[in-house]
Design brief:
Layout lengths: L1 H11 L8 E6 L3 H15 L14 H13 L6 E6 L30 E4 L20 H12 L6 H10 L6
Parallel strand pairs: 1-2, 2-3
Helix pairs in contact: 4-5
């Protein structure tokens, strides 16, 4: 999932393009998501309010507001990736019950980011369009590895072993 989105982002929002913006948020746990938000505010958006303190609830809307201001100058728009999200709504206190609902941006005029959520969970509300990713066949995975690593048929045994270890995922 993640690698497919990385490839999409690299093609659609190339890093050589100064107007492109890809915001990558590790949404696996509340701590990882807050760390990403803090890093974006401090390092990318140069927000002096969070440099030496923990995040507070007001920081997330401020991050999206700053991104919206930056987006007014940029085309294409911002891509926000919430990677490895468990579910939409928080249902308890454990990391496995953590939802991303309060971390989604409130859309404002002029700020319409593209949002991609990667998850092993296929149960999302109807307003979120779900794409099921299938598993590659062994032959497709072998062909992919050979092509991307510029290998020959002489390397077939090693490639097959690698593909089997990766369970045919295009990592």
């Amino acid at each position: 999932k993640t690698e497919l989105v990385r490839a999409y982002a690299a093609r659609k929002y190339p890093s050589s393009d100064p107007a492109s913006n890809v915001i990558w948020l590790n949404a696996e746990t509340p701590a990882s998501l807050k760390e990403c938000i803090r890093d974006i505010l401090v390092e990318e958006l140069k927000d002096p309010h969070v440099k030496d303190r923990d995040l507070v609830d007001a920081d997330l809307p401020r991050m999206y507001k700053k991104l919206a201001e930056r987006t007014k100058l940029a085309e294409p728009t911002i891509l926000i990736v919430l990677d490895n999200a468990n579910q939409h709504r928080t249902t308890g206190t454990g990391d496995d019950q953590f939802g991303i609902d309060k971390y989604l941006p409130n859309l404002q005029p002029g700020f319409k980011p593209h949002i991609i959520i990667t998850s092993r969970n296929a149960n999302w509300p109807p307003k979120i369009q779900v794409f099921q990713l299938g598993v590659w066949s062994e032959s497709d995975a072998i062909e992919f590895v050979k092509a991307n690593l510029h290998l020959t048929d002489d390397d077939h045994g090693s490639v097959t072993h690698l593909v089997n270890m990766l369970q045919n995922f295009p990592l």
